[in-house]
Design goal:
It contains 5 helices and no strands. It has a domain of 156 residues. The chain is flat, with a radius of gyration of 31 Å. By secondary structure, the chain is an all-alpha fold.
Length: 238
């Protein structure tokens, strides 16, 4: 029987080397002996846009939160007017939502090379686009229409008013950019789903499997043994 030479190919079930963090096309470290898997369309664009959405969302969250905190403290009597305040709260909530969803998408992409369920992502995309488009531009216009001179002659109030206008402007612009990113993500997800046919595959929720065991024992004593135990306890007590 012929001996196996050193040039014998690896077995088909050998473990392949990981090509990269997301296993994307173009990574050159993939083992040449394994058959390249077909990548879903739009994966790279989805990953890039998801990272951009997460970064912009955290910027919008921090600057909006700073403006809300200053408005709540109201130093020198400064406060954010009601019309701007309600729109700011909406943009603040959208930034929280998009950051959470983008973070979950990135975590699942790293773990299973797939984003969250298509329906969830499309709903979040639509909500982010609708609310930022309907609230963001008006809030930005109201913010920059504020006049710090209204707080004269209090120089401290004027300085705080100028700072809040800048901080809130950065937060609102970041929120509008988040809506723009999700406006691009919506058709990208739809196109990727149609090309890959994943919309035809039923998506299931997986529950981690495990085992939960409870052991217990019941000991029955005979009548004679029970009487002996009672007599022994009585003798000890006397």
């Amino acid at each position: 029987m012929a001996s196996t030479s050193d040039s014998t190919p690896l077995l088909a079930d050998s473990e392949a080397l990981e090509a990269g963090e997301y296993n994307l096309p173009g990574d050159q470290t993939q083992d040449l002996t394994t058959t390249p898997q077909q990548k879903e369309p739009g994966v790279r664009a989805t990953i890039i846009l998801t990272h951009i959405s997460a970064a912009l969302s955290i910027i919008a969250f921090l600057f909006d939160l700073t403006a809300i905190a200053i408005g709540a403290i109201s130093p020198h009597g400064y406060y954010i007017f009601w019309g701007l305040q309600t729109r700011l709260q909406t943009m603040f909530a959208i930034s929280i939502l998009t950051f959470i969803i983008s973070s979950l998408n990135m975590a699942r992409l790293r773990h299973s090379r797939r984003p969250l369920w298509l329906g969830v992502n499309l709903i979040v995309d639509a909500v982010a686009v609708v609310y930022t488009a309907s609230v963001g531009p008006d809030a930005l216009a109201r913010n920059f229409n504020e006049s710090p001179d209204s707080w004269l002659p209090d120089e401290g109030a004027v300085a705080i008013a100028k700072a809040v206008i800048v901080v809130l402007g950065i937060g609102l612009i970041s929120g509008l950019l988040v809506g723009l990113v999700h406006l691009i993500l919506f058709p990208v997800r739809c196109y990727a789903s149609i090309k890959s046919g994943s919309w035809q595959t039923p998506q299931t929720w997986r529950i981690p499997s495990g085992e939960f065991k409870i052991e217990f024992s019941i000991k029955f004593l005979r009548q004679e043994e029970l009487q002996e135990e009672r007599q022994g306890s009585r003798s000890e007590g006397s």
